[in-house]
Amino acid sequence: MKYRLKVVPLRSEKFTVVLNQSDAEDLGLLPGDRVKVIVGKESFVAEADFTNLVESGEIGVCSFTAETCRLDEKCMAEVYPVSRPKSVEFIRKKLDGGKYSAVEMKSIIEDIAKNVLNDLEISAFILANEIVGMSEEEVQWMIEAMVENGERISFERGVIVNMHTIGGLPSNEFQLIAVPTVASAGLLIPKTASRAITSASGTADTMEVLADVNLSIEEIREITEKVGGVIAWGGATNIAPADDRIIRVEYQLEISPRPHAIASLLSKCLGTGSKFVSIDIPVGDGAKIETLETGRSFANSLVELGRRLGLTVTATLTEGSQPLGNSVGPGLEAKEILGILEARSAENPLVEKALSFAAILFEMTGIANDGYSYAKKIFESGKTLEKFREIIAAQGGNEKIKADEIPVGDKTFTITSQRNGIAKKINLQAVNEIARSAGAPKDKGAGVYIHKKRGDVVKAGDPLLTIYAEKEWKLDNAIEVARAEAPIVVSGMILEVYGRSR
Amino acid sequence: MKYRLKVVPLRSEKFTVVLNQSDAEDLGLLPGDRVKVIVGKESFVAEADFTNLVESGEIGVCSFTAETCRLDEKCMAEVYPVSRPKSVEFIRKKLDGGKYSAVEMKSIIEDIAKNVLNDLEISAFILANEIVGMSEEEVQWMIEAMVENGERISFERGVIVNMHTIGGLPSNEFQLIAVPTVASAGLLIPKTASRAITSASGTADTMEVLADVNLSIEEIREITEKVGGVIAWGGATNIAPADDRIIRVEYQLEISPRPHAIASLLSKCLGTGSKFVSIDIPVGDGAKIETLETGRSFANSLVELGRRLGLTVTATLTEGSQPLGNSVGPGLEAKEILGILEARSAENPLVEKALSFAAILFEMTGIANDGYSYAKKIFESGKTLEKFREIIAAQGGNEKIKADEIPVGDKTFTITSQRNGIAKKINLQAVNEIARSAGAPKDKGAGVYIHKKRGDVVKAGDPLLTIYAEKEWKLDNAIEVARAEAPIVVSGMILEVYGRSR
Q1: Cβ pair A25:B442 closer than 8 A
Q2: CB-based contact A253 B121, cutoff 8 Å
Q3: Helices in B209-348 by DSSP H: which ranges?
Q4: Which residues contact A324 (CB under 8 A, 6 or more apart)?
Q5: Whether ipTM exceeds 0.95
Q6: Could you list the mean pLDDT of each consecutive 10-residue stretch along chain A, which spans 502 residues?
Q7: Rounded CA gap, A286 and A283, in Å?
Q8: CB contact, 8 Å: B310 with chain A?
Q9: From B50, which residue of chain A is nearest by alpha-carbon distance?
Q10: Is B444 within 8 Å of chain A by CB?
Q11: Which helix (H) or strand (E) covers residue A46, if one does?
Q12: What pLDDT does A256 receive?
């Protein structure tokens, strides 16, 4: 049977075709089935969907497919049902409690990278791995396949290092200080960062306030070779594309298996050609990892898998029960970091953490025996700020910008304490939600400024938290969220009293 | 923010709205997120998708949503992000190895029935139950919730019985003989049947050759009360709609957890108000259940769950390694069954099975001590055929039709044996695929006629299998499939020889 091609306005990043319901029945197709489409000498396999967007005798292709395969409307296409890819069977094996072979894992990851597997099939992969678990060998094959099915940076010379955080903690942008410190010492650090998914700002979002982060793999290599470091958005590259697709489905399922988190981190490190990697694991109430025990086992897996893949990994458990800085949201965090760099004082939790992570890389690569002193000297001398400006300039930003000049939202609202006492707890989830409701990360100037940290003495009327927004309606939303939750808990000295008569 | 409503041509049976990418980002939405839409005094929760089908400032609703909520284009709608339904958390609990409470299961099934959960969330439910497993109590709650969230038939008087097969075996339409036999004896049998999903013909597809099967629940009740029995398509009713949705996702995942198969069967029985149920479990190579051991445990679960739900269930393991009749495909099977009824001879595997199943119901309800003799008498007297004609007439069919008059495809091709020998194996999967390629079940006249069964003596040149199709191109497809597979294996007496020098 031949069908007339029609381009239809469907959003799709994979090969999808739509057929009229009656043609689909004629071909014996059900939703989720795949067809082989032959147009002239070209052919591709696509998932078939059914709709009345097209009439009987027509086949609709989304513009992505039309462009990728260079198809013209009015061409005639032959359509045949084809069976599911083999990789679906391999996933089935894991569901039955089995183990993937190296070849099977490679085939699954390749099919994910090439958009051959659909979201339901990817969800089966995620859930099987979450429930049944994966051996270290399986994770190793997964990472190798992720890297193979993507672009890779290779440097001709230099010691290539990297740094990552597993994230989840608001106001944790220490890497914007650590990366230029590391680069100042002559190491090459091609850092890729993520944008916020459920948080108020990812490192890429914050960096974007100061410079362009949508860099190609070629630009990342060039800038790193030129100034020693880069802070780019990983999503703009094609490093480990399978990982990006898996993460998108994980978000919808609200599930992220531990082995996948490890695969995600290490595949990005391998893809950027890094050899020495320092990884931050914040541990604390409300963070992604809540207990030291879980953190330790996570850290050990990272180190062991790094070893299997030829990477030297240091994983560090860090304080994760409250924000490191005071600012949450892209503009506010960029302002805070730049202010800290301008002040050159190491007496700040963000600086302390940044220098500790730079120190680890200095010691791992043998650049210094006392890495922290070495890093501190660089920072206090102003070299970190100077290198950061070079990186900003290389990424097309305004290298002369001062902290004061970074704009933040002009619609503000401050929440004050109702009582005297001590700030007892900062609810990380609530802080995130308030900042997101205010517009972060899309509205760069939106976010939250935290006036009191845990242990701070608070008087009635003292400001606890200021919300910044660019739009009035978003400020209103954020205030509503702040009222429903208790972002900062203030309690008096007396917590509970027993045995006192009323 | 207010958005202008626009109806868009999207196929969707659930509440879905589409927003422009930039508006979605403004609202902080990601694919799969849900929004509350307020239009005047009406409001509904929908899943948000992003597309350029609508411009910024517009919100697209599919026609299903527009009709259900009686929305007009050009109305203004308010849109707010809302969190995921609670039932997603309960599914998460099972993924972590936990157990559902009765309330949690009820909430999950209700959300599936009402289309609140999306396909990815339903896939998490299916996979968690498949891998972690379910207790009998959990399955009981699942079935109860499925029935509560659907329509139910209630009869004022009479003994209500039912019959089902777990399916998977081609040419197994014994129920078209058993149901009128049972109804002849004065029992009420409101049978709902399914259409083929992966097979060449479901009982509903075959019955549709003779009568209308798209009956409402009210019609099923009326016809059953009038003539004693009915054979209707379950999908046209709204009995246990959650089951229909779960099955649709299971098809795409190629996974059907055992507890779900049980829930599917028993919820349909409860929904039709049945008290005594006889269930067929074909066991054999290539059938859904391949070993007696698995069949026994399945049968025990069915009986025990029936007991919990107030149903008296008999589950029977039957020969499932080859087709019962010779015909595969709706028209061919209807023709074969009607011919058997006209011939009135009990010397036929399909009749033998049908009478055995009728006998079980006669003995369960106390209608006869020797159920088989009783059933045989009914069949041989011609009462079964007479009742079948009454049922056909009540369902709007031509009660006078004769087997000879049922049309089958006029494009045919016969595969003959290349050698002398014995028919050793019938490949059920291959037979199904050939019949489907030929056009079954959509083309009623398409299918396959099997000339030789297992153990039959075959001479070179003897016909093994005839393919029937309505369209030439489908016949060609079917021939191609038949050539690639070996639907009927013929082997000589000598299978393998060892130790003979060449």
Answers
A1: yes
A2: yes
A3: 217-227, 241-253, 258-271, 292-308, 330-343
A4: A169, A171, A172, A174, A349, A350, A353
A5: no
A6: 81 76 85 85 83 84 76 83 89 93 97 90 94 96 97 95 92 96 98 90 96 97 98 94 92 89 96 96 90 95 97 95 94 98 95 97 96 97 98 97 97 94 91 94 96 93 96 94 90 73 55
A7: 9
A8: no
A9: A11
A10: no
A11: strand A42-50
A12: 87
Q: What is the pLDDT of residue B379?
A: 98
Structure tokens, A412: 């503000």
Residue ranges of B 446-475 with Cβ closer than 8 A to chain A: 473
> Amino acid identity of B438?
A
Chain A residues in contact with B436 by the CB 8 A cut-off are: 28
Residues A412, A416, A422, A426, Cα dihedral to 10°: -40
Interface of A with B in 151-180 (CB under 8 A): none
Contacts of A254 in chain B (CB under 8 A): 84, 88, 92
- Give me the pLDDT at residue A12, please: 62
Look up the pTM and report it. 0.85
Q: Please give the structure tokens belonging to residue A274.
A: 């890094």
Using CB atoms within 10 A of its CB, is residue B224 exposed (0-12), middle (13-18) or buried (19+)?
buried
Closest CA of chain B from A127, distance in Å: 7
Q: Which of A392, A371, A385, A357 has its CA nearest to residue A161?
A: A357
Cβ pair A31:B248 closer than 8 A? yes
Residue type (1 letter), A403: A
Rounded to an integer, what distance in angstroms lies between the CA atom of residue B354 and that of residue B183?
Answer: 13
How many Å apart are CA A164 and CA B128, to the nearest integer? 32
Please give the C-alpha separations between residue B259 and each of A275, A376, B120, B128, B133, in angstroms, as whole numbers. Answer: 49, 62, 20, 12, 8
CB contacts of B119 in chain A (<8 Å) are 119-120
Q: Are B311 and B266 in contact (CB under 8 A)?
A: yes
- How far is Cα B402 from Cα B334, in angstroms, rounded to an integer? 10
Q: How close are the terminal C-alpha atoms of chain A, in Å?
A: 87
How many Å lie between the alpha carbon of A412 and the closest alpha carbon of chain B?
18
Choose between A38 and B362: higher pLDDT.
B362
Contacts of A53 in chain B (CB under 8 A): 9, 11
- Which residues, including other chains, have CB under 8 Å from residue B500's CB and lie 6 or more apart? none
* A91 → chain B, closest CA residue: B253
Q: Report pLDDT digits (tens) over B480-491.
A: 999 988 899 888
Residue A124: half-sphere exposure toward Cβ, Cα within 13 Å: 27
Interface touch B121/A248, C-beta < 8 Å: no
Residue range B264-316, pLDDT digits in tens = 999 999 999 999 999 999 999 888 899 999 999 999 999 999 999 999 999 99
- pLDDT tens per residue across span B58-115: 988 877 777 777 777 778 888 888 888 999 999 999 998 999 999 999 999 999 998 8
Contacts of B53 in chain A (CB under 8 A): 9, 11
CA A394 to chain centre: 23
Which chain B residues are Cβ-neighbours of A119 within 8 angstroms?
119-120
Q: Which residue has the tokens 């319901």?
A: A21
Least CA distance to B91: which residue of chain A? Answer: A253
Note the pLDDT of residue B495.
Answer: 64
For the stretch B391-410, pLDDT in tens is 999 999 999 999 999 999 99
Cα nearest neighbour of A81 on chain B? B437
For residue B14, pLDDT beyond 80: no
**Chain A residues inside the 8 Å CB shell of B432:** none
**Nearest-by-Cβ selection for A53 from B9, B119, B437:** B9
Write the single-letter amino acid at B22: S
How would you list the strands of the sheet with A488-491, edge to edge? Answer: A457-458, A421-426, A488-491
- Which amino acid is located at A464 in the chain? L
Q: Residue A9 and residue B52: Cβ atoms within 8 Å?
A: yes
